[in-house]
């Protein structure tokens, strides 16, 4: 699965570098492994090399993991790169900050090889599943995000699957962060559905127009009943049918030239 992938390790410990590189090469068969001693060196690698995965320490000299992941997520190519955090300070505040900055998952030091292997395989499976199932809707579909405590935000649907969605909204200054429950109101064609969900990722919106109000991207995992899931699946099927119909129509616009 990973033979054509390049992983970037960022850690100021030579011992950790060697251990993680050995796991990636010997246990997961990564094709290439790059090693940096801090976030700045890692960003230099990212600018000049193709990188598929990042495994980074949180506390490093020159540039730590927090600044590294925040800078990475602003890069046009860095929004979707899987980022696994290694930290010896797995307290709740650190993990919330890390996840809100765009970290996909974390490992508390010290860790066993099997823990890192399981994390990487789980993320890879989730990426494949999302890529196969999610669709970007045709047109603009409005939504609302409501967090416990009363914070509410208007949003726009970016993509959706039967298990979750990605919404574009304003920064969550009134409350709401990664791991928080949220109630979503999604306006899907003629039907409006209310969906209980969990906030799983917050990232900067790299496609946003910097001249207008800044926006962010927030990913949610659904917890839905059968009726709501049926409505979401119907919406996805209708969107796919429209896409297929447009492709068929455009194919008819071509003339055969002999």
UniProtKB/TrEMBL annotation:
Domain Response regulatory as annotated: residue spans: 6-124
Residue positions, PTM 4-aspartylphosphate: 57
* PROSITE patterns, per the entry: RESPONSE_REGULATORY (PS50110)
Question: What keywords tag this UniProt record?
Answer: Phosphoprotein
Gene Ontology terms: biological process: phosphorelay signal transduction system
- Is the keyword Phosphoprotein assigned to this protein? yes
Xref: SMART domains? REC
This one is known as: Response regulatory domain-containing protein
